[in-house]
Design goal:
Chaperone_Skp; mainly alpha; two-stranded parallel ribbon; single chain; signal
C-alpha cells in the first residue's frame, strides 16, 4: 500500500481567516449599529470588508511551502521504510519457496507460521506508518490554522477591518470583489516577514 504525502487543504485557510475575523467582530460594542456590508464609516475611508486570494496565499506564503516540504519528506521516508520492509519479507518468502522441497514437514510448518506472523506484523506496521503520516498532516494544519487566526485577528484590528473574506477560483461563495478590497499582497508580505523573523 502506497503512503502518499498529504497535500495542504485550502479549506483550512478559509476556516482560519474566518475564525480570526469572527473573533474580531465579537468585540464590537452591542449598542453601536453595524454599517452596511462593504461600506465605509463617515470618519474613515477604510473599507470594513476586504478579501484575501486563497490560491495566492497557498502558493506564496513561505510557511506553507516549508510545511509542504516537511510533509512530503516525512511521507517519502515512511513510504521508503515500508517498501524496504516489504522487500525483506518477499525475499524471505522467495528463499522459503526455493528450499521448501528439501525441508521436513515440521520445518515447513514452522517456517510458514513465522512468515505468516511476519506478514501480519508488516501489515500492522504499514497501517501505523500511514496513520503517522496523517497525524503529521493534522499537526501541521493545526499549527497553520493557529498561525493564520492569530495573524488575522491582529491584522484586522490594526487596519480597522470588520470582516476579511477569502476568495478562491471556482468557489461560488464569493463571486466578485473590487480590486481595491484585495489585501492579498499585503497579507502575504506581512506573513512572510513574520515567518522570516521566526526562523531566525
Amino acid at each position: 500500500m502506497k503512503i502518499n504525502a498529504p497535500i495542504v487543504k485550502t479549506a483550512v485557510l478559509a476556516l482560519a481567516v474566518a475564525a480570526g475575523i469572527t473573533a474580531c467582530n465579537q468585540n464590537k460594542p452591542a449598542d453601536k449599529p453595524a454599517a452596511a456590508a462593504g461600506t465605509t464609516t463617515a470618519a474613515s475611508a477604510t473599507p470594513e470588508i476586504v478579501f484575501v486570494n486563497q490560491d495566492s496565499l497557498v502558493s506564496q506564503y513561505e510557511y506553507i511551502k516549508d510545511m509542504d516540504k516537511r510533509l512530503d519528506s516525512k511521507g517519502k521516508a515512511a513510504q521508503s521504510d515500508v517498501a524496504s520492509r516489504q522487500q525483506a519479507i518477499q525475499r524471505e518468502i522467495a528463499d522459503y519457496q526455493r528450499s521448501a522441497a528439501t525441508m521436513s514437514a515440521d520445518q515447513r510448518a514452522a517456517t510458514e507460521q513465522r512468515l505468516q506472523r511476519k506478514g501480519q506484523e508488516f501489515q500492522q506496521y504499514q497501517q501505523n506508518a500511514g496513520a503517522q503520516v496523517q497525524n503529521d498532516q493534522v499537526t501541521e494544519q493545526t499549527k497553520l490554522y493557529e498561525k493564520l487566526v492569530d495573524f488575522t485577528k491582529t491584522y484586522a484590528k490594526e487596519k480597522g477591518y470588520k470582516m476579511v473574506l477569502t476568495f478562491k477560483k471556482g468557489d461560488p461563495t464569493m463571486l466578485y470583489g473590487d480590486a481595491s478590497l484585495d489585501v492579498t499582497a499585503d497579507v502575504i508580505k506581512r506573513l512572510n516577514e513574520a515567518y522570516t523573523k521566526d526562523k531566525k
